[in-house]
């Protein structure tokens, strides 16, 4: 019998949620989501569904033409009634709007761009198939994304973080100390793995114990997009993983969670949010200036690998970037520092 993986379960969960959202969306929206099913992962389709739902909620609330209409009853002709000005107003609405479930919601540059990308894809599908006559989304400029400084730990901070995870129990008392002792090997293995491989937090929580290959010191991960890859690790990661696996043998997991590599205190697979909280808890003891997340540990690994090898293509491959330009963008600051150093290498005149 085939083992049902974390990613299988996650896909099923996304599909169930998609079906629920589709009951709220206009009937014609189902054709779009079936149409993109071959090219988009379930997580992406679900995100698009949520974003498209926000758009139709906006139309019903703000446009008098659709007053007293139910979302699920909207005909496809409604798309041709939307103008470029409506799209611009929608973009402005997205910056701050009120949601029944979450109260006030705000979107920065990246949130705006993602929601507009979803709407553009939605319109493009029907326009391409000649089901609508206009596509006002192409008449509106996409939000501009400004590059952010890459936050990473330096070598001293990495060593300090690992030392703290390994020995901070000496500073704790009572229940805090008891809890730390129960999770020490797990936390050290998890953070060492993130720092020593650069895998994504979603890839990390999706690991099963069967995905570890100590013969070759590699782990099998499911990359963004669903592709499988083998990521190799060094001696420090191996040592931390072996120590944790000894502790893991004494854990009786909840039924259905037997294969998970990292367990929570409830003996279930550790989730993304729990890992984010765990990393933040330890990292804030090392630096109060930098907000360290699992993704920042990934950047730390990528930076260290680039410094050691100078091979941007190797970094892109190890990090699982489909396009090396993504890697170049993230590590442009390192290349800039190298170029500045090169300016003083060539001497035009002897002193």
Which structural class fits the helix and strand makeup? mainly alpha
Q: What is the CA-atom radius of gyration, in angstroms?
A: 24 Å
* Portion in helices: 40-55%
- Overall number of strands: 5
Specify the number of helices.
15
**Residue runs with pLDDT of under 50 for 5 or more positions:** none
Q: Taking all residues together, what is the mean pLDDT?
A: 91
Q: Give the overall silhouette.
A: globular
The proportion of strand residues reads 5-15%
Most strands sheet: 3 strands, antiparallel
> Separation of termini?
76 Å
For the record, the CATH architecture of the largest domain stands as Orthogonal Bundle
What's the order of the H and E elements? HHHHHEEHHHHEEEHHHHHH
Can you walk me through this structure?
With 351 residues, the protein is mainly alpha-helical. The protein has 2 domains: 6-139, Tyrosine recombinase, N-terminal domain (DNA polymerase, domain 1), CATH 1.10.150.130; 155-293, Intergrase catalytic core (hpI Integrase, Chain A), CATH 1.10.443. 54% of the residues lie in helices and 6% in strands. The chain has helices spanning 6-22, 29-35, 42-62, 78-81, 84-95, 109-128, 155-167, 174-197, 201-205, 235-248, 272-283, 294-309, 312-319, 324-330, 332-342, and strands at 96-99, 103-106, 212-213, 218-222, 228-232. A hairpin with a 4-residue loop joins strand 3 (212-213) and strand 4 (218-222). Helix 8 (174-197) crosses helix 10 (235-248). The radius of gyration is 24 Å and the shape is globular.
């Amino acid at each position: 019998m085939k083992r049902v993986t974390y990613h299988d379960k996650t896909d099923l969960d996304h599909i169930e949620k998609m079906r629920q959202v589709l009951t709220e969306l206009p009937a014609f929206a189902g054709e779009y989501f079936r149409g993109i099913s071959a090219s988009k992962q379930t997580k992406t389709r679900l995100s698009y569904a949520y974003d498209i739902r926000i758009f139709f909620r906006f139309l019903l609330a703000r446009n008098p033409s659709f007053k007293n209409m139910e979302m699920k009853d909207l005909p496809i002709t409604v798309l041709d009634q939307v103008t470029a000005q409506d799209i611009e107003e929608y973009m402005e609405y997205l910056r701050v709007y009120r949601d029944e479930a979450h109260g006030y919601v705000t979107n920065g540059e990246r949130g705006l761009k993602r929601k507009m990308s979803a709407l553009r894809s939605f319109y493009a599908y029907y326009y391409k198939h000649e089901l609508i006559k206009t596509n006002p989304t192409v008449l509106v400029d996409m939000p501009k994304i400004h590059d952010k400084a890459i936050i990473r730990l330096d070598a001293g901070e990495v060593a300090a973080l690992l030392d703290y995870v390994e020995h901070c129990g000496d500073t704790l008392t009572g229940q805090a100390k008891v809890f730390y002792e129960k999770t020490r090997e797990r936390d050290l293995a998890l953070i060492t793995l993130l720092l020593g491989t650069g895998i994504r937090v979603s890839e990390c929580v999706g690991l099963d114990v069967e995905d570890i290959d100590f013969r070759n010191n590699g782990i099998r991960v499911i990359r963004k997009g669903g592709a499988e890859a083998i990521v190799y690790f060094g001696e420090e990661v191996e040592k931390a993983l072996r120590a944790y696996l000894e502790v893991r043998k004494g854990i009786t997991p909840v039924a259905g969670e037997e294969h998970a590599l990292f367990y929570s205190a409830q003996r279930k697979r550790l989730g993304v949010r729990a890992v984010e909280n765990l990393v933040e808890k330890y990292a804030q003891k090392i630096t109060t200036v930098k907000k360290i997340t699992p993704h920042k540990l990934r950047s730390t690994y990528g930076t260290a690998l680039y410094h050691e090898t100078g091979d941007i293509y190797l970094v892109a491959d190890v990090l699982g970037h489909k396009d090396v330009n993504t890697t170049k963008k993230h590590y442009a600051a390192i290349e800039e520092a190298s170029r500045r150093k090169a300016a003083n290498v060539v001497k035009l005149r002897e002193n």
